[in-house]
Design brief:
heterodimer, A: Phosphorylase Kinase, domain 1, Transferase(Phosphotransferase), domain 1, 6-stranded antiparallel sheet, 4-stranded antiparallel sheet, 68 strands, 20% helix, flat, B: mainly alpha, Arc Repressor Mutant, subunit A, 2 domains
Chain lengths: 1031, 188
């Protein structure tokens, strides 16, 4: 028995409470009457603090010999430092060094000695979960493997960022910036839900924001996977021994240990929102113990964010949280999972609606029960079904469907086969299997084909077929202004007249893969891998010179032909007299050449993975371009010669500065690159992948696919005077492409695009964004023609009935007008100051004449005015709080309030009114004026007969509907969802026939062009998309 | 292997959490038996030489026990505390038996045994430590619990504090005082 411990123990405890530097003095004072006791306590104190590892290494911690150290390798990755550790695994920052390319990654590896079966199983699941997630706001799985001692590891994207709450505070973000960041997080979680993955551990530490303000979701270590309705609960159990989960962000059902569903993540997002808005947590007090905290989470209502915000960051005014943001947060934090937002997307949408000044859909304690939505929105199942269809012929698919749906009608079968063909065609287009896409489209029942079919047809068949020759086409070049020389496998070569369309065969050397013409147009050089060079006198139409060695080459500006041979020889041929001069060089096996007349420079690409810039006169090498990791098969100068592009078997395209040889850019379209051409626009076109897709590297650095050829493209020719690029392909066609060819044209802004309008002649469209600009684009060139600035945020735009005027209404209710001749601006009506605490819904719609219909939100009524802004008249004497509106061609108006729907004639007389049991999110009047469609917050579309106001049908629009647009012929209705999808409904059978997938956030505006050709969509993701239909 | 009715574990955990000592005892028993059986079962399957941490076994046991139940989120930490004690019992028991048998080496040992032998290699008199812990409990039970949770359960100060309902700082002080006591005890 240690003597006197009754006295020593408590004293030691008290001593430890003192600040370290004062302890000695404190003890002396405390034990002044009993110095012996003081000395004894001090001795024990020193022994307690002695750092010899006594009892320090708990049994869970692997001993030193099994710990990893920086510098050690796991697979090809060198460990840098530990980022975090749990009971089972350790996360390391690691580096992979490939040549000069350094890549930082996060590696999660099982601790030595912790590799129990359950842990290994858990790791496999986590890997599967991660591998299924590919989203800009989710940290990516890069690699995975097994260490030498057989322990599994995951390699994940390393996110150099700060926790979202820290980031918001340190960067001093304002309310809007915080909310936008939060919306991105919601979208990422929603994406995971769509793939059947519930995160379950959302908290700031797992949501990092990088230097470019991109939030990234991390750590799916305890994620739950729902597959085919079954729970694969991988549960937190394997984390036993790891730091305990902090319940601060946990939902009541998690705390109670109940079954956890998608709404758990919605709750945690609510806590996250609460944190970044107020700086505090809904259930935390500084002194709260764990048990107390848990009780509060389960039983106590959190304080309103606007009340807690006083403790929060200076950037947020508590007053701005009052009302909508209070409601929104509390709905996300509802104790009852069924009463929360149905999905992270629904939460995101309401935040976006708040930001756009629209009424939020959540009403405290009245959110509709929409839990089953998760299952309906569940993508993998749908995706795998479609993928299965993509593999089947439609006939077989039809037979299978018939087998499964024997009881169903022939009509239903036909529809199913139609939608399956479309889905399969779309999948094939995405995979660049153009031939398969065309076959699928061809098999779709003809009588059902409508806008969506033409839209897909358009996507799969871009570029106009100029010539269709039953031959494998190879090289191509312009021969004079109006003719193309093209080589083919069977015939040798063809002369194609671009004016008359006439096509003539030339019997040249067999299997010429390349052709080039001299500057004066007198000579053509055909080059074959087997037979070498054949020079042709184009006027006399005969071969004048043959050299079996030279397989590549081009004409220099002095008229001589520079040829390169496979054995690394090079020679200059004078076509006039057939003299040959060998050119010694050390460059290696030359695979590609290009010549820049402006600057008299030559560029060659070699098998030795180098490119060289040579003097065009002396042929002396000037600059080496090094970096490729495979033979360089294509080189091209930009029009001014300032840039060189190179591409080859390493799959990369690199752009170099001609003068100093520095690499300016490196990018990969996917697959080998065998031809390259700069367009006059400065953009670069590349091809070579086996699937026939041409890839355009656009000015933003993204690769845009040009889909049309069904097989590999072999050559590209730019025809600047005609504004076209020609391509030759193994599919036997020569296609002509305009420089602005785009698949799914997208017009980006950094802000919400919610106001859209087509000019009545369908040649232009306008979109207003929250940045205060109204942009006008040309439909054909896709060019932005005008950017009209107003002082505040445009809520809506419209063109007058004959297109002379463009109207916009801003979020203060002020009306703006531009004359479309020269876009002179006139302010028609002043608005009132707008406060973010209250919403107003301002809309402007064209009236059949030249005037405009205006609607006002919470404190006003619709009014009509003349185009000069005079004659403002209230449409009705009632005060209406309009939230949605649409108009028929005859000038009748459908107005929706939060709880009522009104149908007014042109004079403003109410024809009928009816109650709405859900908040309307969009309304639309059919072109024939017989139907109205009302989308509401329960996600359903209500189809009403306009004559009586009676509801004829109610259908579910998966993902809710926030925008609606009828096709001008009335056969299709487009409905934009909160997840970004646009469903196309057949308006006779009321079934979804196709879904346009592109937007990443709520689709807030939709409009078909007046000619019915294209559909325009605007989204909170900041983009306007043009979905092109039949040309 | 003897299956433990999952409902039992959940119930026992809850009752333990509510401070019922009898439930805790019963739980230790269950866990203890389970651990021993697992060690025996693994003897046949895994080759010698690879070492598995004892705590990994505890985790494995926990996963197996709890997987059949539903929603153990809240009780997990109590389980940790319980498993720390079970681990302590297992180790001390092993030490006792080793002493009694004068360490008769067997050709092939189970992973638990393997780990325990490794543990012995740390030159710590486990039986003396156990005696010290019992003594310390008489003085200040909380201090002894902190040692148990940290040394046998591998918890941080924060986690131990959460289980015991005390702050991190208090847990840390308790740890140092206990360390002084145990060091003194073991030096005797």
């Amino acid at each position: 028995m240690i003597s006197d411990w009754e006295r020593i123990g408590p004293l030691l405890d008290e001593l430890l409470e003192q600040p370290a530097e004062q302890r000695e003095a404190w003890l002396q004072g405390r034990c002044s009457s009993d110095e012996a006791l003081g000395r004894e306590v001090w001795r024990h104190y020193e022994r307690a603090m002695q750092e010899d590892g006594f009892l320090e290494s708990p049994l869970t911690t692997p001993d030193s010999k099994s710990a990893r150290r920086p510098g050690e390798h796991i697979g090809p990755y060198a460990l840098v430092r530990e980022l975090g550790a749990g009971g089972m695994g350790i996360v390391w920052l690691a580096e992979r060094v490939d040549g000069n390319f350094r890549r930082q990654v996060a590696i999660k590896v099982v601790k030595r000695g912790m590799d129990t079966e359950a842990v290994l199983r858990r790791f496999r699941t986590e890997m599967q979960v991660q591998a299924n997630l590919d989203h800009p706001h989710v940290a990516r799985l890069i690699d995975g493997g097994v260490t030498e001692e057989g322990l599994p590891f995951l390699v994940l994207e390393y996110v150099a960022g700060r926790p979202i709450d820290v980031y918001c505070d340190e960067e001093g973000l304002g309310l809007e910036q915080r909310l936008r960041l939060f919306v991105d997080v919601c979208r990422a979680v929603d994406y995971a839900h769509g793939r059947g993955v519930i995160h379950r551990d959302l908290k700031p530490g797992n949501v990092l924001v990088d230097g470019e303000r991109n939030p990234k979701l991390l750590d799916f270590g305890i994620a739950k996977v729902i597959e085919g309705g079954e729970d694969f609960d991988t549960l937190a159990l394997t984390r036993t021994g790891e730091r305990l989960l902090s319940p601060r962000y946990a939902s009541p059902e998690q705390v109670r240990g109940e079954v956890v569903g998608p709404s758990t993540d919605v709750y945690s997002l609510g806590v996250l929102l609460y944190r970044i808005l107020t700086g505090g947590l809904p259930h935390d007090a500084p002194t709260t113990s764990l048990r107390e905290l848990e009780d509060r989470i389960c039983d106590q209502e959190p304080a309103l964010p606007s009340r807690s915000a006083s403790r929060g960051p200076d950037a947020i005014e508590p007053a701005r949280l009052r009302g909508d943001l209070d409601t929104l947060t509390l709905v996300a934090l509802h104790k009852d999972p069924a009463r929360r937002y149905a999905s992270p997307a629904a939460l995101a949408t309401d935040v976006e609606r708040f930001l756009a000044g629209k009424p939020i859909l959540a009403r405290a304690d009245s959110i509709p029960y929409r839990v089953s939505r998760f299952v309906r929105r569940h993508r993998p199942l749908v995706a795998s079904t479609l993928a299965a269809f993509a593999l089947l012929t439609t006939a077989l698919a039809g037979a299978l469907l018939f087998y499964f749906e024997a009881a169903s009608s022939a009509d239903r079968l036909r529809w199913t086969s139609y939608t399956a063909s479309l889905a399969a065609a779309e999948a094939a287009i995405r995979d660049n299997r153009i031939g398969a896409a065309r076959r699928q489209l061809a098999s779709a029942p003809e009588e059902l084909r409508n806008w969506e079919w033409f839209h897909l047809q358009e996507r799969a068949d871009r570029g106009q077929v100029l010539f269709d020759i039953h031959d494998e086409l190879w090289g191509a070049t312009l021969s004079g202004p109006d003719a193309l020389l093209v080589t083919g496998r069977e015939q040798g070569a063809y002369r194609l007249d671009l004016e008359s369309g006439e096509q003539t065969s030339l019997s040249v050397v067999a299997e010429a893969t390349r052709v080039t013409v001299s500057n004066d147009g007198a000579w053509a050089a055909f080059l074959s891998e087997v037979q070498g060079l054949s020079l042709w006198d184009l006027e006399k139409k005969r071969e004048t010179f043959v050299d079996g060695r030279l397989q590549r080459g081009l004409f220099l500006s002095d008229g001589r032909f520079l040829g390169a041979a496979q054995d690394a020889g090079m020679a200059l041929v004078d076509p006039a007299d057939g003299s040959v001069v060998d050119v010694p060089h050390q460059l290696g096996n030359i695979r590609a050449l290009d010549y820049c007349r402006e600057r008299e420079l030559l560029v060659v690409g070699t098998w030795e993975e180098e490119a060289w810039i040579l003097d065009g006169g002396t042929l002396e090498p000037r600059t080496a371009l090094r970096g490729h990791e495979g033979s360089i098969e294509a080189v091209a100068f930009s029009a001014d010669g300032a840039l060189v592009a190179s591409g080859g078997l390493d799959g990369t395209v690199r752009i170099w500065d001609t003068d100093d040889g520095s690499q300016l850019r490196q990018s990969s379209p996917g697959g080998f690159v065998t031809c390259l051409a700069f367009l006059p626009t400065g953009e670069l076109l590349a091809s070579g992948t086996g699937d026939g897709v041409l890839w355009l590297l656009d000015s933003r650095g993204t690769w845009v696919p040009w889909r049309g050829h069904a097989a590999r493209v072999r050559d590209l020719v730019v025809d600047e005077p005609r504004g076209l690029v020609y391509s030759t392909s193994f599919d036997g066609t020569v296609r002509a492409w305009t420089f602005d060819t785009r698949d799914l044209p997208t017009f980006e802004s950094t802000v919400f695009m919610q106001a859209l309008a087509w000019k009545p002649d369908a040649r232009q469209f306008a979109a207003g964004g929250m940045d205060g600009a109204i942009r006008v684009w040309d439909r054909d060139s896709l060019a932005e023609e005008h950017s009209l600035r107003i002082q505040s945020k445009p809520m809506d735009v419209t063109w007058s009935g004959r297109g002379e005027w463009l109207f916009a209404i801003d979020h203060r209710g002020a009306l703006h007008r531009w004359e479309t001749q020269d876009y002179t601006w006139t302010a028609l009506q002043e608005g009132a100051e707008f406060s973010i605490d209250r919403y107003r819904h301002f809309r402007v719609l064209a009236t059949p004449g030249e005037g405009a219909l205006l609607t006002f939100g919470s404190d006003g009524s619709p009014a009509l005015c003349r185009p000069d802004g005079t004659g403002m008249e209230r449409l009705t004497s009632n005060t209406l709080r309009v939230v949605e509106v649409d108009r028929s061609k005859e000038g009748r108006t459908l107005l929706a309030e939060l709880d009522r729907l009104h149908w007014l004639d042109a004079d403003g007389n109410v024809l009928w009114s009816r109650r709405l049991d859900q908040i309307p999110t969009a309304v639309s009047v059919s072109p024939l004026g017989d139907l109205a469609v009302v989308a509401a917050s329960d996600g359903a579309l209500r189809i009403l007969r306009l004559g009586t106001g009676g509801e004829t049908q109610r259908v579910e629009n998966p993902g809710g509907a926030h925008s609606l647009a009828f096709h001008p012929d009335g056969t299709r209705l487009a409905a934009g969802t909160e997840g970004g999808d646009i469903h196309l409904w057949d308006t006779e059978s009321w079934r979804i026939v196709y879904t346009l997938d592109g937007h990443t956030q709520t689709v807030e505006a939709l409009e078909f062009s007046p000619d019915g050709r294209d559909l325009l969509s605007g989204s909170f993701d900041g983009t306007v998309r043009l979905w092109q239909g039949p040309r | 292997m003897q299956e433990i009715p999952p409902g039992d574990v959940t119930r026992l955990l809850r009752r333990t959490a509510q401070g019922e000592n009898e439930a805790a005892e019963r739980l230790y028993e269950l866990l203890y038996d389970h651990l021993r059986e697992m060690a025996a079962a693994q003897r046949a399957r895994r080759g010698a030489g690879d070492t598995l941490q004892p705590t990994a076994l505890v985790n494995e046991a926990w996963i197996r026990l709890a997987q059949n139940g539903n929603g153990e989120w809240r009780d997990r930490e109590h389980f940790l505390a319980v498993s720390a004690r079970a681990m302590r019992f297992v180790l001390v028991d092993h030490a006792r038996r080793s002493q009694a048998l004068k360490r008769k080496p067997t050709a092939r040992r189970g992973r638990l045994e393997e780990a325990l032998v490794q543990f012995e290699g740390r030159a710590l008199d486990l039986l003396a430590l156990e005696e010290g812990l019992e003594r310390l409990t008489e003085h200040d039970e909380r201090q002894a619990r902190v040692v148990e949770l940290r040394f046998f359960g591998g918890m941080t100060y924060e986690e131990a504090g959460q289980v015991l309902g005390i702050s991190r700082a208090t847990a840390e002080r308790a740890w140092y005082v206990a360390r002084a006591f145990l060091r003194e005890h073991l030096d005797r």
